[in-house]
Amino acid sequence: MKIKIISVLFIYFLSLGNSILFQHLQAQNDKKNTVRLSVNYVRIMNEKDFLEIKAISKINKKSTRIPNLELFIHNNIDNQLVLLGKSTTNNDGESNYLLNLKKIKTDSTNTYHLKILFKGNDLFKKTAKKISFKKADIYTKIFTKDSINFITAELKDTSNDSLIEGEPLVVQIKRLFKPLKIGDELMFTNNNGAITVPIEQGIPGVDGNLTIEVVLEEHDNYGTVKASIKAPIGVPIVDESTFDKRTMWSPRSKTPIFLLVIPNILTLGLWGFIIYLIINLFKIQKS
Amino acid sequence: MKNTDKLILDLAPQKFGKAGIVWTWILILISLIGIIAYIDQVIKGQVVTNMHDYALWGIYISNFVFFVATSFVGTVTVAVLRLTDNSWRTPIVRIAEIISLAAIIMAGITIMIDMGRPDRLLNLFIHGRLQSPIIWDVIIIPTYIIISLLLLYFPLLPDFALLKSYFKDKNPKLSNAYGKLSLNWTGNKKQKKIQLNSIKIIAILIIPAGFILQTIDAWLFSTLFRVGWDSTNMGAYFISGASVAGVGALVAIIYVIRKAYKLEKYITDLHFDKLGKFLVLTCLIYLYFNINEYLIPEFTSKKEEITHINVLISGEYSSLFWFVIIGGLIIPIIVLLFKNGRKPLPMFLIGLLVVVGSWWKRYLIVTPTLLHPFLPIQGVPESWHHYFPSVHEWLITISTLAMCLLIITMLVRYLPIIPIQRTNDEQEALSENKTPCYEN
Prior knowledge:
The structure holds 2 protein chains of 2 kinds. By secondary structure, chain A is an alpha+beta fold. Chain A is built from 2 helices and 18 strands. The model of chain B is unreliable at 436-440 (pLDDT under 50).
C-alpha cells in the first residue's frame, strides 16, 4: 500500500515536473519570432543554377530581412533527406546557393525536390521550406529580315524533351542599372514553344554590342530561366567625356580660357591702377 | 578769425564726451563677447551653429551679403554723385567713404567666420578654381578694400596737413601722427595735381569695382541651380538692393554724427532732403526688381517656385517678408515722397528702418531657398526643414555689426568727418562766385 502511494506521488510529481518544463520551453519558444523562407530556383543558361533564398520575419509588425541564418539544403527523395550543403544569409537576409544538378537526384518524373531547413536559434523558431522544379532551357537566335533584327527564343522542358507552349517570356536588353524591356508586355510561347520579337534600331551599346536576355520569370514548375545572347546590332556608344577638356567643372589646371583671360584682365587692370595710385602717394610725399 | 581756422575749429576731430565713451565701450564689450563665441566655435567646430546639410549657409552669409551691400555706399555717393556733378555731396562723402571701408572690411572677416576651418583660408588662394564665383569674391573683396581705403585717404591728405598744424601745441603726438599721414603735404601745385588726378582715377575705378563686387555677390547665388536664386535678374537686383542698404546706413549714421558733433551748420536739412530723394529713387528701383523677382515665378507657377513663394508670402517667413517689403521699402517710399518726411528726424527713423529691412532681406534671400532643395535628402529630419541661428551665431553676428560700428566710431574720432580743405575751397569759391577746383 505504502509503495503504491509512493509510486502514485512519484508519477504525479514527475508529470507535474514535465508539465512545468514543457510550459517553460513552450513559453521560451513563444517568445521567438517566426522566420519565413522564400525560395526560388534560378537557371542562367550555360552558366549556373542556384537557389535564391530570402529569410523574412515580422518583427514589431514590420517585415524584416534576417541576416546570418544558417540554412541546410537537402535533396528530398523518397522521403529521405540527403544533405547537399549549407548556406548563410547575408546582411540583406538573402542567400544564393549554387546547385550542381548532376549530383541531385530526381523522382520518376525528372522533378527535383529540395528542402531548405533552418534549425532555429535563440531568436527564431525552426522552419523549413520545400521546393520542386523541373529543368527547362531557353534557346535564343538572332536573325535579320528586311533589314530588321529579330530575336527568337525557344522554351524547352528538358525533363521530357518537349517544347513548352503558352508560357510568358520577357525579352530585355541588359543595361547598367535596370534592363530595357522590348517587345510586347506579355509574350506567350506558340505551338512550337517559341516567341519572335523585333529589336528596335538605334539602341546604344558598348562598341555596338547588345546583350539581349530572354527570361521565364518565377514559373511554378521551372523557376526562373534566363538566356543571354550578345550581338553587334546596337549603335556604338561614343565617349562624350569632358574629362580632359576645359570646362566649368574641371580642375583649376583645366580652367576655360575665357575664364583665365577675363578675370585676370580685370584683376590686373584694377591692381594696375591701385599700384599706380600707391606710387602717386610716394610722389606726393617727395614733392 | 580766418575762415580756415574757424572750419578747423568746427570740423577737427574732437574727444568723445561721456556718451561717446560709453558708446565705444559698449561696442568693445559686444565685440569681445563675439570674439569669445568665435573662439569657442573654432575649438568646438561649427556644431555650435544651427547650420546643417540643408541650411549650410546661415546667418553668417546673410550678414556677409549685408556688409557687401552696405559697402556699396562708397560707389553710389562718391562716384555716382560725382559723375552727375551733385555738389551738395561734400559734407557727406567722407562719412560714406568711412562706412564703405568699415563694411567691406567686416564683409571679409565675416566670410572667414563662416568657414569651418579658417586655418585653411590660404588654400582658397593656392587651390582656388577660377570657375567658382567664390574665388572671384576672394579676389574682388581685398581689391575693393584697397580702393575704398585709397578713396578715403587721398582726399584726407590736405586735411591731415591742416590737423598737423592744429594739434601741434595741443597734442604733439597726434600732430606727429597726422604729419606722417599727410605725406609732407604742403598743397603745392605738383602735389595738388597728383592728388586731383588720383582722386579722379579712384572715383571712376570704384564704379566698376563696386559693380563687380555686387554682381559677384549676386552670382554666388544665381550660378547655383536653386529656387529663388536661379535668376538672371540677380546682379541688377543686388546692385539696387545695395544702393538702398548703403544710402539707408548713410542717412542713419549722418544723423547721429550731425547730432553728436553739432554739425547742423554743415549738414543741413538740404542734405537730408537730397539724400531722401536719392533714397526714394533707390527704393523704387529695388521695389521694381523685387516685383520682377516674385511676380514672374508666381505667374509661371513652377511647382518649386510656388512652394518657395508661398513660404515667403504666407508661410513660415511671411511676417519677415512683409516687414521687409512694407517696412523696408514701401513705407520709406511713401514717407520720403513728402517734403516733411525728408526732414532729419524722419529721415533718421526711415534710415534705420531701411537698414534693418535690408539686413533681414539678406536673411530671406539666403535661408528659405536652402530649406527647399531641388534634390531633397531621403528621410531627412524634420528639423532640417527649419533654421534659426544658434546663440553662438547671434553673438558672433551681433559682434561683427558692433565691430563695423566700432571701426566707424574710431575713424570718426580721429578723422575730420567733413572735408575741411574742400569745404574751405567751396566757401571761398562761393564768395568769389567761382567754381572750386577739387575732386572727390
